[in-house]
Design a protein that fits this description.
Length: about 130
Amino acid sequence: MADHEPEPKRFEPKNPVVLDSPKNDPISLEELSKCDGTDPDRPTLVAIKGTIFDVSKNAAYAPSGQYHVFAGKDPSRALASSSLKVEDCRPDWYDLEEKEKTVLDEWFLFFSKRYNIVGKVQGATNT
């Protein structure tokens, strides 16, 4: 798709979502790992390309949810390759093929239209 084309409607939420202004707070990998949906006193977070999204309101990321494997991590590589394998839930993605990088960018766009950005992974090199 050429850069000048409008963004596809397929990434728009079915119901309008009002999002807070994005935050740029540094969040350590250790803190991110504690936000995996298992502690009711912490939000459920997922990072993509070093940007952290609060997915707490989506049960799919809860401990019994189909996407829980992503919670508390930066699963950029897994999202790019459409994988639910724990070993693929890691932040590195630079060596992927262009098609997979496009899929990752689409996931980032999808998340950015639905979930609040609450920070950045501290020291992230995969942005």
